[in-house]
Design brief:
Elements (H helix, E strand, L loop, with lengths): L1 H19 L5 H10 L7 H14 L3 H14 L8 H13 L5 H9 L10 H14 L5 H12 L3 H16 L6 H15 L18 H10 L8 H13 L4 H12 L12 H13 L4 H12 L8 H13 L5 H13 L3 H18 L3 H16 L12
Helix pairs in contact: 1-4, 2-3, 3-4, 4-5, 5-6, 6-7, 7-8, 8-9, 9-10, 11-12, 12-13, 13-14, 14-15, 15-16, 15-17, 16-17, 17-18, 18-19
């Protein structure tokens, strides 16, 4: 599922370029060519513009991370190239984007990376990440996996215990995550590696869901065709194949988020598919409905009450995701609950600080806090505070 996650992230990252880039931004111009907005779609030109943006724009770390994920997943007219992915992840690190350490380590410790499987290099990056500071939960767990794969089980147990303790101290840890972390701890205590021996053979993904993704982004062998992507994803959902992921991708297509093509946007279809994704346990469906209800082009489709209802449900999911908190805050503000908006947006800022990620995101998040404070005209608590 790692490749699936990256493909879904790419569509979201493209939208990020549009949201934070200036009008004259090379990254924004690259996104136009990537999506074919106002110009003829040209993936090679898009990549060239992103690479130029890396050299000239302050969002360089984020741009490099995007290019790394693009080469990792393949598609959009590019062949999958893990070497280039690592090259761009490295450049992202050079620009201070610490999250890219985890991308590289994850590649080097996974036998599915083929010839790039290299425990020694993973250990080098792991030591460097520790020197520069790392998050006490998710990064600790990754370091534990790295040391276990290197058969240094003593350190693996040490980091896994640290990761479990740190995760339990979070505001709302989930039992399923704790259970998985503890299962991994038992494996390391029994001197079990997380992955089997490295193999040169990496099976090619198959199935309707995979075919739908290929049509969605376009590959070397499959031309980009959104209509066919929809057909394959609907078929995958109906046959019980990755139902949550299929529903979420379909919703994003009809909402106009993933790609533009030969399928028109449909507010009602997007809403329907987001609801199906939620029914299958996909919390991003809640974010999709909030976004859809708050940002619809037609006033008649702007449903603040439904957005607030989804925000309440999203908060109860306890995801500790800053992006989720940002949307919860936006829903509160749209409903005139500015005190709540301030509180949730401030939680978003704190999580971004803990992650030590993109400084631009932190600055924008803090600016939103101040905006909500200035507009604090109504009081009242919409959601539980603890």
């Amino acid at each position: 599922m790692k490749n699936t996650v990256y493909i879904m992230l790419i569509g979201s990252l493209l939208l990020c370029f549009q949201s934070f880039a200036d009008e004259e931004s090379l990254a924004k111009e690259g996104t136009k060519y990537m999506q074919g907005k106002g110009v003829k779609r040209d993936y090679q030109q898009a990549v060239a513009l992103y690479e130029a943006a890396y050299l000239t724009e302050e969002n360089a770390g984020f741009i490099a991370l995007f290019l790394g994920r693009l080469y990792f997943s393949g598609g959009y007219g590019l062949e999958k190239d893990l070497s280039k992915a690592i090259e761009w992840f490295d450049k992202s690190i050079e620009k201070g984007f610490r999250q890219s350490y985890t991308q590289i380590i994850d590649l080097y410790i996974d036998p599915a990376s083929g010839d790039l499987y290299d425990i020694d290099k993973a250990l080098e990056y792991g030591e460097e990440m520790q020197d520069k500071g790392y998050d006490g939960s998710s990064d600790s767990v990754l370091l534990a996996k790295m040391y276990a794969q290197a058969e240094d089980f003593e350190r693996a147990v040490e980091f896994q215990n640290e990761g479990i303790s740190s995760y339990k101290r979070l505001r709302n840890p989930t039992e399923s995550t704790i259970e998985q972390y503890e299962k991994d701890l038992v494996k390391y205590e029994n001197n079990e590696r997380p992955y089997a021996e490295a193999s040169k053979y990496v099976p090619k993904p198959s199935g309707l869901f995979w075919e739908g993704q290929c049509y969605l982004i376009g590959t070397k062998d499959v031309p980009r065709d959104i209509k066919n992507a929809v057909f394959k994803l609907v078929s995958a959902y109906n046959k019980g194949e990755h139902k949550a992921e299929s529903a979420l991708l379909l919703a994003d297509i009809f909402a106009g988020r993933v790609a533009e093509g030969n399928v028109p946007k449909s507010h009602n279809k997007a809403l329907s598919w987001y609801r199906r994704a939620i029914d299958k346990g996909e919390v991003e469906g809640l974010v999709g409905i909030i976004r859809l209800c708050l940002r619809s082009e037609k006033p008649s489709q702007q449903r603040v009450n439904e957005a607030l209802k989804c925000a309440s449900q999203l908060y109860k999911e306890k995801t500790n995701n800053p992006e989720h908190l940002r949307w919860i805050a936006q829903a509160c503000a749209a409903g005139g609950r500015y005190e709540d908006a301030v509180r949730f947006q401030q939680e978003c800022v704190e999580l971004l600080k803990q992650a030590d990620g993109d400084s631009i995101k932190r600055t924008d998040a803090q600016a939103a806090v101040e905006k909500y404070k200035d507009r604090s005209e109504e009081r009242g608590v919409l959601l539980p505070g603890n």
